[in-house]
């Protein structure tokens, strides 16, 4: 059962999401929030698997609420899926930088939202098709955006750098294993060790940090 908290300032939007999830097997809506402050409080109270987070809300917005949730050690298992009407690159990048595990637009088909929730709950990263390498190149490539400890970069082995490039290219652990002719378990171990070294919460943040550190560039992940 995937436990979900809905955070959106529009009551009808939350009601629609609730109906969708409650009529689908495997989901349990544990709470709702009308702003970022309520979303953080609800996450602390219910400890959901996923918070479906709107970006623009009154008071504390979704990006700040995401930062607070992902920075709380008591919510280490809680993922954030950002869902917004705004197809703006800055929102996508800041959402991922803030610790979000996925990003989708509100015009996404219901079946895709359900799939996204399952993907994020499984620990994978989820990006909307509108998130392109242009976003990475434009925002992560700026020197002022690099916020990673250089000592962590030096600890990455050549093999781990190779695996990181494949992760940044969108490959799953199974695909990485096939590409490198190793077992899926070994691929998973490499990814886990890289996440620990860089300090990434999940694969989505791992990709952001990989580009920010310069370990991976857009042309290497083609």
UniProtKB/TrEMBL annotation:
Q: PTM 4-aspartylphosphate: at which residues?
A: 54
Gene3D superfamilies in the cross-refs: 3.40.50.2300
Q: Which GO terms describe its molecular function?
A: DNA binding
The processes (GO biological process) annotated in the record are:
phosphorelay signal transduction system; regulation of DNA-templated transcription
Record bears the keyword Phosphoprotein:
yes
- Enumerate the spans annotated as HTH luxR-type domain: 149-214
Q: Which SMART domains match?
A: HTH_LUXR, REC
Q: Which residues form the Response regulatory domain?
A: 3-121
Ordered alphabetically, the record's keywords are: DNA-binding, Phosphoprotein, Transcription, Transcription regulation
Presence of keyword Transcription regulation:
yes
The molecule here is called Response regulator transcription factor
Q: What is the lineage of its organism?
A: Bacteria, Bacillati, Actinomycetota, Actinomycetes, Pseudonocardiales
């Amino acid at each position: 059962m995937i436990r979900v908290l809905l955070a959106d300032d529009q009551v009808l939007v939350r009601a629609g999401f609730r109906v969708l999830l409650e009529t689908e097997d495997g989901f349990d809506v544990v709470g709702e929030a009308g702003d970022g402050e309520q979303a953080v409080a609800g996450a602390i109270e219910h400890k959901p698997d996923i918070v479906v987070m709107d970006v623009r809300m009154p008071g504390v917005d979704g990006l700040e609420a995401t930062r607070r949730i992902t920075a709380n050690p008591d919510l280490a298992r809680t993922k954030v899926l950002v869902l917004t009407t705004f197809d703006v690159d800055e929102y996508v990048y800041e959402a991922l930088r803030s610790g979000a595990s996925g990003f989708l637009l509100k015009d996404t088909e219901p079946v895709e939202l359900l799939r996204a929730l399952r993907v994020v709950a499984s620990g994978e990263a989820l990006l909307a098709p509108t998130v392109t390498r242009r976003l990475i190149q434009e925002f992560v490539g700026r020197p002022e955006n690099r916020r990673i400890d250089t000592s962590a970069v030096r600890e990455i082995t050549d093999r781990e750098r190779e695996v990181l490039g494949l992760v940044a290219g969108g490959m799953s652990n199974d695909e990485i294993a096939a590409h490198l002719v190793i077992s899926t378990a070994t691929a998973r171990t490499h990814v886990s060790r890289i996440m620990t070294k860089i300090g990434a919460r999940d694969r989505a943040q791992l990709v952001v940090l990989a580009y920010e550190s310069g370990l991976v560039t857009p042309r290497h992940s083609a």
